[in-house]
């Protein structure tokens, strides 16, 4: 039997951790599949993606900057249709491409797996970029009350508009609520928040050193808040370590990464993803890199 090829397309893409977790999962399930990072220069990208599928590709993840372009090439489902952004592409028997967005559900599934209840919970999301958009959509569809705060008010408004304007696609009615908070007021909203999610890059490792900055006033946090940082490099940002010292429950971005990958794995293979195996493979890789 010939190997079924899968992968992630983007530009650049060499930093992607997806090959590590998908190949570990294939090995665990004894699948003769191979997942690779495919860097596509920004010329004729649609043709190149179509060509990859014509050659018998079993599925592609799509990362920056091609998530919207992928949306324009396929029949988009669920969050991908709402957000006009696709991170997982598969081809059906007649060669039609279908697109999905698994990032937002990845975070929600991860939080559920950690017994975090989102129903009617107030969630303060810091940042209004790509990650914020997908998680706000998934949180609002999980019946949460989301407050988005970003230093550029227009970007926060864009996130709110996108979530609000797309509530009926696929007949999935939005159950939660979403609103914006001025960046200068975010610390005042902490006391009334159940969860706080950092969706900014503040705290990421840059030039091998973790960014020591904080996205909020740590003194405003009490042990009652759950703190989620979407960053996974470093595994523990200053925000998470100081929140932990205050007694908060904390989660880094690894869970979201693994669970979005697990959803993509199931879409591509039709099989349940071995989440622990994927998690261990990434953790081992990140530890080696330190
Ligand atoms: P993005 O599109 O560049 O958006 C970043 C957001 O953070 C923007 O609103 C940006 O504001 C804001 N921001 C950046 N620096 C800031 C600062 N110094 N002060 C205040 N706000 C600042 O990035 P993204 O793709 O959404 O990613 C955001 C974070 O999530 C990154 O750390 C990324 O690694 C992480 N992430 C994790 C996963 C996962 O699976 N765990 C997936 C995706 C992303 P401006 O527009 O004003 O610059």
Supply the key terms.
six-stranded mixed sheet, 10 helices, 290 residues, binds NADP nicotinamide-adenine-dinucleotide phosphate, alpha/beta
Question: How do the helices and strands line up, and which of them pair or pack?
Answer:
Elements: E1 4-10, H1 18-29, E2 33-39, H2 45-54, E3 59-62, H3 67-71, E4 75-76, H4 79-83, E5 88-91, E6 97-100, H5 103-113, E7 122-126, H6 130-140, E8 145-150, H7 153-165, E9 177-182, E10 195-198, E11 205-206, E12 209-210, E13 226-229, H8 238-245, E14 249-251, H9 254-269, H10 275-289
Parallel strand pairs: 1-2, 1-3, 4-6, 7-8, 7-10, 8-9, 10-13, 13-14
Antiparallel strand pairs: 3-5, 5-6, 11-12
The chain binds NADP nicotinamide-adenine-dinucleotide phosphate.
Report on the structure:
- With 290 residues, this protein is α/β, with parallel strands linked by helices.
- It contains 10 helices and 14 strands.
- The strands form 3 sheets. A 6-stranded mixed β-sheet has the order 2-1-3-5-6-4. Strands 9-8-7-10-13-14 form a 6-stranded parallel β-sheet, sandwiched between helices.
- Helix 1 (18-29) packs across helix 10 and helix 5 (103-113) crosses helix 9.
- The longest helix is centred in the C-terminal third of the chain and has 16 residues, at 254-269.
- The chain starts with a strand and ends with a helix.
- Bound molecules: NADP nicotinamide-adenine-dinucleotide phosphate.
């Amino acid at each position: 039997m010939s190997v079924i090829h899968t992968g992630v397309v983007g530009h650049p893409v060499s930093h992607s951790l997806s090959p590590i977790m998908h190949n570990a999962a294939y090995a665990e399930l004894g699948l003769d599949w191979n997942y690779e990072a495919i860097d596509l220069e920004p010329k004729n990208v649609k043709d190149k993606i179509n060509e990859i599928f014509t050659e018998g590709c079993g599925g592609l993840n799509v990362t920056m900057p091609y998530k919207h372009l992928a949306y324009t090439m396929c029949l988009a489902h669920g969050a991908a249709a709402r957000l006009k952004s696709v991170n997982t592409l598969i081809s059906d028997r007649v060669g039609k491409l279908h697109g999905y967005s698994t990032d937002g559900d990845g975070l929600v599934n991860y939080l559920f797996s950690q017994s975090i209840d989102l129903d009617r919970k107030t969630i303060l999301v810091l940042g209004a970029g790509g990650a914020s958009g997908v998680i706000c959509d998934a949180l609002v569809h999980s019946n949460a009350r989301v407050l988005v705060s970003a230093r550029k008010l227009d970007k926060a408004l864009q996130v709110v508009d996108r979530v609000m304007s797309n509530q009926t696609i696929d007949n999935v009615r939005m159950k939660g609520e979403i609103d914006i908070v001025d960046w200068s007021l975010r610390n005042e909203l902490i006391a009334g928040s159940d969860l706080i999610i950092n969706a900014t890059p503040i705290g990421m490792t840059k030039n091998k050193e973790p960014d020591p900055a904080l996205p909020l006033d740590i003194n405003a946090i009490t042990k009652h808040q759950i703190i989620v940082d979407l960053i996974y490099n470093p595994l523990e940002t200053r925000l998470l370590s100081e929140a932990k010292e205050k007694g908060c429950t904390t989660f880094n971005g690894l869970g979201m990464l693994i669970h979005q990958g697990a959803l993509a794995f199931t879409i591509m293979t039709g099989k349940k993803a071995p989440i622990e195996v994927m998690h261990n493979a990434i953790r081992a890789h990140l530890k080696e890199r330190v």
